[in-house]
Protein: Adenylosuccinate synthetase
Amino acid sequence: MPGIVLIGAQWGDEGKGKATDLIGTKVDYVARFNGGNNAGHSVVVGNESYALHLLPSGIINPHLTPVIGNGVVVDPEVLFQEIDGLEARGIDCSHLLVSEAAHIIAPYHRTLDKVTERFLGKHKIGTTGRGIGPAYADKINRVGIRVHDLFNAKHLHDKVEASLHQKNQMLVKLYNRRPIDVDQTTDELLKLGERLKPYVANTGLILNKALDEGKTVLFEGAQATMLDVDHGTYPFVTSSNPTAGGACTGTGVGPTKINRVIGVSKAYVTRVGEGPFPTELFDESGEWLRAQGHEFGVTTGRPRRCGWFDAVVNRYASQVNGLTDIVLTKLDVLTGLKEIPICVAYDVDGERHDDMPTDQAAFAAAKPIYETMPGWDEDISQVHDFDDLPATCQAYVKRLEELSNCRISAIGTGPQRDHIISVHSLID
Ligand code: GDP
Ligand code: IMO
Ligand code: MG
Structure:
């Protein structure tokens, strides 16, 4: 019953799409368990490049079954756009399964996301504007709309009415906007439900049966550990649990069925949106990393903030997720640097912290304590054996491994499928 969880170990965009695609060739199911179309996962196959937002990246592999679990928030309009876009490129999406218990992102969630950010002003989170936070807020407030609600007109109308009752008061009185019409919204959602119906299934049951039959399920996380609503840099986080535990609640599979937890980390760090980021670079090194690594968001196109590898973050990710393996990506991007700093600990008001401070004010004040390693100039993109990497490059990877409290099992040396060095098998 191999259940493999794959999560982001930093602040997102670590290369989860590529890592999923890599393992996807050997698994039977790939299930998304959290987030929605705030995610942007890139997969590059030959000359083709795909940007997946709501669909699991595994959908590119025709032999596996892609699943959207109950923990995902589904914007049906976006889902159909994505399906249509992929099918036009010859990717069959007809075998997609969508949990009947997943929550829906309705048009009013997108509206609320944008007006709330504007209202927060300098306190804004820098969200993707996709309605993620408001949809999860409704779920927790127990006024959310779930996939199976779309199939009963009367029931749906009641739910939309209940959900919009308070929101319309807020939109009109607080945000000075027009109220949202209940009948029109219900009709729109009913139409979307008709198209969604063939994909809808009891995905929890299907995944559990598959695991019991010895099939392999890969649980593909979106966002990342430091964006987790419980374990990340709250309040500058997303509204779901991208950490490994979220794979269980977000699909209905118990923790005893998971035997591998793979964390994906870049060989440096990036972040999009607001919030503290101790190793962030504001000088030409940051510009250099952004240019070399093409660090611009797949979802919003925003330039990503860039900084050196933060071992405190990675140790924390190992702890929170119970990592068994790390896939280290974008090592090639560092080629050409004379020296590479690694943040090994933080200085918070003169006190050394080797572990993640739990107090967000302390984290915001954390200054990186760096150790510096020599760099390399050789092109590593065609290297397929760890021993063939330049000695200084090997030493850099070994040091990251030591500092992260977890073995590095694969190393990305470029965006393509074959730009990879396998050190330990990720699937057995
Ligand atoms: P995700 O959100 O974690 O799936 O990551 P994104 O797709 O948002 O961003 C990662 C970017 O890095 C994508 O453009 C990938 O094609 C690219 N990428 C992934 N692994 C590597 C690697 O090892 N080297 C290089 N140069 N690019 C990579
Ligand atoms: P992938 O899966 C990087 C960030 C946003 C913002 C915060 C909250 O591609 O790694 P939200 O719209 O979720 O309410 O925004 O989270 N964010 C991401 N940053 N990669 C992502 O996804 C992200 N998804 C959300 O920039 O700071
Ligand atoms: Mg991304």
